[in-house]
């Protein structure tokens, strides 16, 4: 169980994923500030409300004799916020990566030599392990033992 966990932690993907989560969290704060401080008040002003969250409120009667409020403006504000985050992710990450992939594919089709990806630490350690295992097996076959 611990061996599997160690292999999982040693992968480069875990570090990349952790960085992405931290950057994504920080970026979300920026988008939230933009939506809550600029867009919601500006769109709310169009509907004579303090902000978009307080626009389009519909009161409905309840069985207890009071009223309940349906805040349709809050839903619209959340949709706008989602669209802004999605657009930022697309234009800042997805589109540039797709362009890089297209360029690499064009180079490959044109016959340009591919850039060699350097081996990871895990690859190097696996190679060393395999070499040691072969060396030990060869020593056992000849009757010699490494000291």
TrEMBL record:
GO terms for cellular component: plasma membrane. SUPFAM superfamilies: Gated mechanosensitive channel. GO terms for molecular function: mechanosensitive monoatomic ion channel activity. Its main location: membrane. InterPro entries: Mechanosensitive_channel_CS (IPR019823), MS_channel (IPR001185), MSC/AndL (IPR037673), MscL_channel (IPR036019). Keywords: Cell membrane, Ion channel, Ion transport, Membrane, Transmembrane, Transmembrane helix, Transport. It is a multi-pass membrane protein. It comes from the Bacteria. The chain crosses the membrane at residues 12-35, 70-93. It is found in: Cell membrane. Channel that opens in response to stretch forces in the membrane lipid bilayer. May participate in the regulation of osmotic pressure changes within the cell. HAMAP family: MscL (MF_00115). Belongs to the MscL family. NCBIfam families: mscL. Homopentamer. This is Large-conductance mechanosensitive channel. The gene is mscL.
């Amino acid at each position: 169980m611990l061996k599997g966990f160690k292999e999982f932690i040693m992968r480069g993907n875990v570090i990349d994923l952790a960085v992405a989560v931290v950057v994504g969290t920080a970026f979300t704060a920026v988008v939230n500030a933009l939506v809550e401080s600029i867009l919601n008040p500006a769109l709310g002003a169009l509907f004579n409300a303090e902000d978009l969250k307080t626009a389009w409120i519909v009161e409905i009667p309840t069985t207890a004799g009071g009223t309940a409020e349906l805040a349709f403006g809050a839903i619209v504000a959340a949709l706008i916020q989602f669209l802004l985050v999605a657009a930022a992710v697309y234009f800042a990450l997805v589109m540039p990566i797709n362009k890089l992939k297209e360029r690499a594919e064009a180079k490959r089709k044109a016959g340009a030599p591919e850039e060699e990806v350097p081996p990871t630490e895990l690859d190097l350690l696996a190679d060393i392990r395999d070499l040691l295992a072969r060396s030990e097996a060869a020593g056992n076959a000849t009757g010699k033992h490494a000291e």
